[in-house]
Amino acid sequence: MTTRPLQPSNPGLMHEPRLSRLLFADPRLAPVWALLRVYVGYEWLVAGWGKVTNPAGVWVGEQAGTAVSGFLTGALAKTGGDHPDVAGWYAWFLQHVALPNAAVFSYLVAYGEVLVGVALILGLFTGIAAFFGGVMNASYLLAGTVSTNPLLFILATWLVLGWRVAGWWGLDRFVLARFGVTPRPALPSATGPGTVPGPHR
């Protein structure tokens, strides 16, 4: 007599490891995620607010695009040598797309940084805000600017991974619930090993 191997209760779903649930989906770690989220949000808000309120108007205003043009020109100067700081394909993008539209990118950068900062501080659509923050960090890094971008990019990546609980101490706790997303504690359940219990209230 042969026995058939046990089949998963729902073969269409992949079970999440307990460690992954603990780190990225357990509300008990919400304070840690809140600290990271607010720190990254503060950095973006300060950077963006400085651009929006710049008295010379080189980011937003009559001289919009001036600062971006200078930044892009400096980045294009880093494309030479055996080990350039700016890759050739990205230099093409900067020269043919970004530089001719410097004024548009100026507004996108200034207000984008402010919006990302506000969203992260409030914990509103944290995963989306962190994603766009990471895109800006990657853009600056590709342009040869280091500064705090590596650290902020790493933290943004973590916030994207922990989107389910990163905004638990924030507006996401209420907003995401309307979309059926409710963080659940990584606790064992009586219904079987690896089973996630019901919504944590």
From TrEMBL:
UniProt keyword list: Membrane, Transmembrane, Transmembrane helix
Localization terms from the record: Membrane
Transmembrane domains' residue ranges: 89-108, 115-139, 151-171
Key word Cell inner membrane present: no
Primary location group: membrane
Membrane topology summary: Multi-pass membrane protein
Keyword presence, Protein biosynthesis: no
Protein name: DoxX family protein
Taxonomic source organism: Deinococcus rhizophilus
